[in-house]
Sequence to fold (225 residues):
Amino acid sequence: KAGVTQTPRYLIKTRGQQVTLSCSPISGHRSVSWYQQTPGQGLQFLFEYFSETQRNKGNFPGRFSGRQFSNSRSEMNVSTLELGDSALYLCASREPTEVNEKLFFGSGTQLSVL
Amino acid sequence: EDQVTQSPEALRLQEGESSSLNCSYTVSGLRGLFWYRQDPGKGPEFLFTLYSAGEEKEKERLKATLTKKESFLHITAPKPEDSATYLCAVQANQAGTALIFGKGTTLSVSS
Fold:
């Protein structure tokens, strides 16, 4: 099976712009989670989608949003970018019947905000 | 507040020199504790899940243990290919499916 695929791999934006990141989960996985990774804060949970519905949301401002499509692919959007949004954004998927089990992570999208 | 603290931040070992990484956690109710390995430029890769105090799991040179307040990742006779950042995460009752990660321990093994 192919792993979790995230595009693009690298992205450079300027303050005030918006950005959309894409994630294709492992085939058969209906749950997709997003995490932000920075050197100072480590990995922080953004949100999780399951069957096109947001199941859980972390403590991030409303500028961060996401959605999931019927084929389980997911996108996250960040509007009005700030310098502090520079980070590695990781997407992860998991088996549909497993709540407590392992996440499979993609390689991430490295976002730089100038 | 649910919290995960890993120590040390960085660890340098000689090949064959065994050691342990620590993960201390404070959660309202533990549903599971996870260990991941992250190589530079890649996403975290799952290693272990532990559910209750006293549980142990092994994989090659790695062994994870769990108590009511902390978890250890023991590395026996490490090799250079074990060099990576090791991340600990917990799933708490009040956090639903979200994982709360520690900041990781970066391990360097030299030959």
